[in-house]
Amino acid sequence: MLMFAISFASLLCAAAARPSLNYLENHFAAENESEEVRSAAIKRLLEVFGMEDPPAIHGHKQAPQYMLDLYNTVADVDGVTKDPYLLEGNTVRSFFDKLRSEQVEYRFNLSTVARTEKILTAELHLFKLRPQASLTFNRHHFCQVSVYQLLDTSVNNNTQEKKLLSSRLIPVHSTGWEVFTITQAVRSWMVDEGSNLGLHVVVRTLGGSQMDMKMIRFASGRNHHQSKQPMLVLFTDDGRRSTSLESLGPSSRSARSVDYSEEEGVSSPCQRMPLYVDFEEIGWSGWIVSPRGYNAYHCKGSCPFPLGQNMRPTNHATVQSIINALKLMKGIETPCCVPDKLFSINLLYFDDDENVVLKQYNDMVAGSCGCH
Questions:
Q1: What angle do CA 214, 215, 221 make, to 5 degrees?
Q2: Per residue in 48-103, pLDDT tens?
């Protein structure tokens, strides 16, 4: 009998230790709801960055040095824009040569560029190698390098097979990057994707004769390091514009006008507070090169009467504060603490084709706060 009592008591303890069915159902429902909220939030954040899904990147990729240098020129360590006029447009894309040919022909896949993007400037970047040692004492000091757009001769029975895009003199014994403007060709490719037959580079002496290709050599995607690969750099504008702070409606200012300190129980004045967005925590560190995160900041605090100039009030907010203080009308709240200056940030990232993109996003950082 004693053994039976002990066993029965053990069963009761075990049953009590197990979570009830209702508890489990509520727990899993809460987890599912939390996951749904997270998914919806991530999807909305992707929309802010103009994407439907995060790019899928396989393995570790190295961004071109040109794009890294350009990012560091236009953005500070947190990605905030140094000067909005430094960048032409709001998007810069880099593409590697898809032909990977040893010859001086290049082709770039531009399928990731939206038709709605305005092409501002397109540049062909070629890395010029040193002449071979045996040809160092060649009598030529300069050469004429010309970039042509390859044409489809079957259209309109055109006898011209290529169209001159850019041509200039280059020192024979120099080494390093050479940049050629090819905007006209890229614009035509965006209108008709099938017309993208590539580019052809011709090197001639100043007298017009063909130059020995052992004397003038450009790095190819096949035989040279990625840091020297032929590259197309595209400056575009996607037409996205910032939202003027003056146009923000009441729905955008639904923040509480009064904020109380939990410790002291007194209101604190309107001020800018930290709000760090960590891309690694969100799960985006695999495709975002820079920054690793940024401080968006947020505005918090009260806007009590009388509003001092340190609270950067608008005239409307000042009048609203007076009406509230005098209780001349019912339902008139104190002004709200909101951003009155917004800054843009820059994102350097890999797209779906593993091309590196530098994009500027407006209104991403609260620069200062005021009572509005």
A1: 60
A2: 888 888 888 776 778 999 999 999 999 999 999 998 888 889 999 999 987 766 66
- DSSP letter string, 187-245: HHHHH-GGG---EEEEEE-TTSPBPPTTTSEE--TTTS-GGG--EEEEEEE----PPPG
> Coil, helix or strand for 278?
strand
Phi-psi region of 263 (alpha: psi -120 to 50; beta: other; left: phi over 0): alpha
- What percent of the chain is modeled with pLDDT above 70? 77
Integer Cα distance of 309 and 246 in angstroms:
19
Domains of the chain: 91-237 (2.60.310.10), 253-371 (2.10.90.10)
Contact 179, 173 (CB under 8 A): no
Query: How does 189-209 read in b/e, with b if 16+ C-beta sit within 10 Å?
Result: bbeeeeebbbbbbebebeeee
CA distances from 95 to 66, 99, 112, 300, 326 (A): 12, 12, 10, 43, 63
Beta-carbon neighbour count of residue 144 at 10 Å? 16
Tens digit of each residue's pLDDT (9 = 90 or more) over 299-347: 999 888 887 777 777 788 778 877 777 777 887 888 889 998 999 999 9
Residues ≥6 apart with Cβ < 8 Å to 249: none
- Rounded (5°) CA angle 320-324-328: 105
Q: Is 71 helix (H, G, I), strand (E, B) or coil?
A: helix
Q: Which of 327, 322, 324 is nearest to 306 (CA)?
A: 322
Percent of the chain whose pLDDT exceeds 90: 37
196, 107 contact by CB (below 8 A) = yes
Q: Does the global pTM surpass 0.85?
A: no
Of 117 and 223, the structure prediction assigns the larger pLDDT to 117
Strands, E assignment, 47-204: 91-96, 105-106, 118-129, 142-150, 162-171, 176-181, 199-204
